[in-house]
Specification:
11 strands, 4-stranded antiparallel β-sheet, alpha+beta, 5 helices
């Protein structure tokens, strides 16, 4: 009798352990599936981002948080020569420029990085790519002829007859922070406020900060490839008193 009870107890324990292992495996698979889903959504559809600096003042402030539509899928199609001729951008849009050097991370590393950024509210990442992301405003699109006078861009759209200010072309209302520059600066300095006429090539755009002082943008980078545009700001969700489209 004692031996029979012992055998049943061992059998039950083994069955229970096996069941627990299966439950644990299912939980791990669900977590993995969630992380893959989140990483796919944040990579190809939507993402969130916080503005860490004051380069977009006065309209945007440090600590502002945004929901962005991702352009990763468009960039992938563009690299394969399958992108639509209709650009997903307009002049005046606020975008996320990815100026990181080309590098290839494994799928597993990408999933783990996405998970870490999700659970730390985008504060921690496994890579150092965050330092290469910049929130800027699109000023010029392919074919545009642009120049700058006293920090304000004038644009002749590709195929257009007239030169207009950036406000007239974009049709959007935004305010610039125009700095006072040293008297000895001349037009050869990128932040002097003046820029000779350039024409954007196919697949290029020109992005600037709303704060037109010495901040990195297309004045120092030059026109950037459209594939470097990682996303477009859809709306600001924090702080609540400034909720809406910036």
């Amino acid at each position: 009798m004692a031996l029979s009870f012992f055998n049943k107890s061992v059998k039950f324990s083994y069955a229970e352990q096996k069941s627990q292992r299966h439950r644990l495996l299912r939980v791990l698979l669900w977590i993995l599936a969630f992380l893959v889903f989140y990483n796919a959504v944040s990579s190809f559809f939507f993402s969130v981002r916080v503005l860490e600096n004051d380069t977009m003042r006065p309209g945007l402030r440090p600590g502002d948080r945004f929901v962005l539509s991702s352009f990763s899928l468009y960039s992938l199609l563009d690299r394969c020569g399958l992108a639509s001729a209709n650009l997903p951008l307009k002049r005046g849009d606020i975008v996320l420029a990815d100026m990181a050097p080309e590098e290839k991370n494994g799928i597993v590393a990408g999933i783990l990085d996405g998970a870490l950024r999700f659970f730390t509210a985008q504060r921690v990442s496994l890579t150092n790519r965050e330092e290469y992301f910049y929130i800027k405003r699109v000023i010029g699109l392919p074919g545009d002829e642009i120049s700058m006078t006293n920090f304000v861009i004038r644009i002749r759209p590709g195929g257009g007859l007239y030169t207009l200010t950036e406000y007239e072309v974009s049709g959007q209302d935004y305010v610039l922070d125009i700095p006072q520059i040293p008297a000895l600066w001349d037009d050869s300095i990128p932040f002097s406020g003046n820029m000779d006429r350039i024409i954007l090539g196919e697949g290029e755009c020109f992005v600037l900060s709303d704060d037109r002082s010495n901040t990195n943008d297309s004045r120092t980078w030059g026109p950037i490839p459209l594939r470097n545009v990682a996303g477009k700001v859809l709306f600001r969700y924090w702080p609540p008193n400034r909720l809406g489209r910036p």
